[in-house]
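Escalation from tier 1.

The customer reports that the assembly of two entities below gives different structure tokens on two consecutive runs. Tier 1 could not reproduce it. I'm attaching the input and our single run for tier 2 to review.
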Amino acid sequence: MPSYTAPLRDMQFALYEMSDTAALRALPGCDDLSPDAIDPVLEAAGVFCAEMLFPLNRSGDEEGCRFENGVVHTPKGFPEAYRAFCDGGWTALGCDPAYGGQGLPHSIGLLVQEMICSSNLSFGMYPGLGHGAYAALHRHGTQELRNLYLPKLVSGEWAGTMCLTEPQSGTDLGLIRTRAEPVGDGSYRVTGTKIFISGGEHDLTGNILHLVLAKLPDAPSGTRGISLFLVPKFLPADDGRPGARNAVACGAIEHKMGIKASSTCVMNFDGAQGWLVGEPNRGLSAMFTMMNEARLGVAIQGLGLAEVSYQNAVAYARERLQGRAPGGAHGKGPADPILAHPDVRRMLLTMRAMAEGCRVLGVWTALQQDIATRHPDPARRQEADDFVALLTPVVKALFTDMGWESTATGMQVLGGHGYIREWGMEQYVRDARIAQIYEGTNGIQALDLVGRKMSVHAGRYLRRFFHPLLAFIEAHEGNAALAEFVQPLAKAFSRLQQCTAELARRGLADPTEAAAGATDYLRLFGLTALAWVWARAAEVALPHAPTDAFYRAKVATARFYMQKILPQTGALTSSILAGGGALRQFEDAAF
Amino acid sequence: MPSYTAPLRDMQFALYEMSDTAALRALPGCDDLSPDAIDPVLEAAGVFCAEMLFPLNRSGDEEGCRFENGVVHTPKGFPEAYRAFCDGGWTALGCDPAYGGQGLPHSIGLLVQEMICSSNLSFGMYPGLGHGAYAALHRHGTQELRNLYLPKLVSGEWAGTMCLTEPQSGTDLGLIRTRAEPVGDGSYRVTGTKIFISGGEHDLTGNILHLVLAKLPDAPSGTRGISLFLVPKFLPADDGRPGARNAVACGAIEHKMGIKASSTCVMNFDGAQGWLVGEPNRGLSAMFTMMNEARLGVAIQGLGLAEVSYQNAVAYARERLQGRAPGGAHGKGPADPILAHPDVRRMLLTMRAMAEGCRVLGVWTALQQDIATRHPDPARRQEADDFVALLTPVVKALFTDMGWESTATGMQVLGGHGYIREWGMEQYVRDARIAQIYEGTNGIQALDLVGRKMSVHAGRYLRRFFHPLLAFIEAHEGNAALAEFVQPLAKAFSRLQQCTAELARRGLADPTEAAAGATDYLRLFGLTALAWVWARAAEVALPHAPTDAFYRAKVATARFYMQKILPQTGALTSSILAGGGALRQFEDAAF
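Tier 1 run:
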């Protein structure tokens, strides 16, 4: 019942008109990335997602995964779609050409990711996890491991997982109990139980490579005693094909609110053979070097679902005739399309302003990732890496909260029909909900922002964001045409600066103060970042607005954002400045 | 996995300490409603809900309703639980003693309703709809219809429905096509299709009484040409038992996001025999006299789900050990209970402040309903009715938005476990979602508030709320101990007054302006009403706080509300005052 069309025009706007494409093309291996080279990739991805993945989304949700005798069956059509996905080269898109990849930068791959998430989030989890395993091995694996495994991950022939969580250990990975004993031949025997393992078992690939956090026999306690191991489901035979079955098995799959076509597995390791990835006891650090990428990936899930929900809410609002809009009839029939009702427009514009704003912010962040990994100058790399480190928790929480709020709003536009499964809108809500939880709950993102990113290197990360934002505001202070956008931005930024200073000051005296304000602060940060995006968008769009409806819509959306969404920064500031006293005073026993 | 205990102590606080129980006991038939009389009812309801209804909530969700050959089978245990519900007299609680009811006022029945919604919302729909049919017939039916049907509805032997929506007609009931032709014997033949009919068909009762909106042959077009008919599934035989099957049948049931154990039916009327209820062409008006009650009932669904989600989030937060809370270890083990983490406390206190505040506001509104229906003085009845008319859209939207937000927050406290079905938390979210949609979407509530309730009788409704609120603020202006509560309340109230005046002024010139600000205005109104509740709660609790933890918790929660939630009123005010220009400027084609 729902439909999806990749928002190519807006993606082009985000990439070509709102981002520093000159900086992108100056990177090694990116010099030929003109629009003529990029557009066909985006178009092909849009067609593949709309035609191959999207039609399996509703049926995948209804059918779910099936667990029988240790085997997970994905829903009908998934294995065929996965083969087509690999054949199309989509698993190889962002991978190293040395292992068969296409070497496309993050800032482009992210847009393809968005389309996959819009079309079929559950499906996207499988190659997404495979890419996570690729990234871990590529960065931390020995050359031998890389040669053996990376080509299979790049081609999509084999998939991967991230095995972190255990029953007693989720957010706090220092509590894990899975153990790894050295065998003596360079390999280890891994034993323990992992839960919530996405793609832990499925029928899409000939092999699954588990990246497992475990403790060496005499490891220090806590997070400084965790190592990372590669544990394949099948040990590769001499010819490179899957050989003997390893001692790892799926014990059960979870029944979840959403992403039902993505298997979520209990994985039992019973002396399974594995190989160390990276340094002993540095596994968490190895994991965390990939976290920025994984968290941005989860952020894009929120964006993708918000986009597809918006598209279908608009389609319904155009067709559904109900009531007379205030201010006179719009249509000629017995009722107006609900698109004419101001409260429906409010809902749609809220969804639109958030999704389009996040798209640009996502591309900006991904472009800095590209610079951080590819730029020849270490200083430029460090700068970009600082920006990414700072923005990652903001983007992860902001986008996924937005995904949840927007899909719920999209559903509301459809009224009762939104609540009915066959219309598809409620699935987006259920699918979106997990993104606020996994890869670190959004509360943990907020603590990462105020507890770590805000303070390290005496606020150096913050300056990577604050300085160019301040420069933008100063550069446009005298611009009358932009004043309605730049003034609210400047006000929000001054609130952000005030709260930053206050949280830093109070947090020194009492760390509970920083934690108490963290979630509000992250939201304040995110909304200010989007205000920057929209002020920039207005700047870019205004010259073309008189003659082009696309740019008029940008200006109108920027105005909507400033007037209707950005004021939340005032409430957040009040709440932050009120401090954490009210949280502390409440007695534990009284909850 | 989840658990539920009726929050009796807080209900007693809301009823006995926060409400005007003297006014309640002064009403005819209420003079013996002392705590000694009420408490046993609440206690028995709490036990029944926890022991009989709650255990069927998860299984009912998993099993859902089954449709076979026109028959709907409710989930296992539902028929038995329904019989026990009737045997316990719970269907009769708020009904007229003349027809076998117990005559309990709304303000007490509402608390029982809350327990039912916390325990098993789907189950509660069936007797809830029966009570709706009871209320419609009781108020608008002929004496003959009342004598014939009311005792069966009061005893719960027969159930009822409200048949309003049609495929082309939801919010806009002027578009309905169902027709009623007079037969000549005082009855009518009703023909048409109704959708989204809760409890349209099920296996709980021997008969189902459909209250159907339909058009008489020469009815005026639009909402002034709608009449209300009673169409029983089985025509009563002479002995009062269900006799011949009427020409009404369930064609299908919907598959929904939640409330899966509540059947949502397509109902086909094929010349079914029916009887007019109320005046010809005044059916919508008859329906709307019951809407206040029905909408308050839906509001309580939001409250009930928020409460049970809160209870289970707290239980998890006490037991789950993860990470070290900032500011030093709380427990002795390897990690602290997450209850010690400020961000978790923020989530729990947000849920608590909203649920407890709404409970009091609900009782206040229900008490005014009681006065409006029972007081001997017509002037007092009118005053109370004004208050209820004004508060109903606010309460419906505020409570159900809160239900959605709080159940989602409760789920977040559980992290990954919140997303797993067996933990039960995600069901509350899915069940809560419908309450924002049915009985008039929350956007429609907002339009009702600004478009009708705000302006009628030159703002008379508003004065029923504004005057006593202003009197409260003035009475406590010099109270230093209350200043931290009364000052924020006064600020919020002054924002509300400013926005009221502005919306009224602008709405006169351009009705799209009032509609554009409606949703923000309703939220502003609701948060201000809750600020009044919490300032009152602080006033009541402060004297007892030094010696009693229950009252200390009230004071601390009031403080949390003022500092962390009420500031949203500032953002809402900014958004309202910015007006609707941004909504109008966006071109339809650009969506």
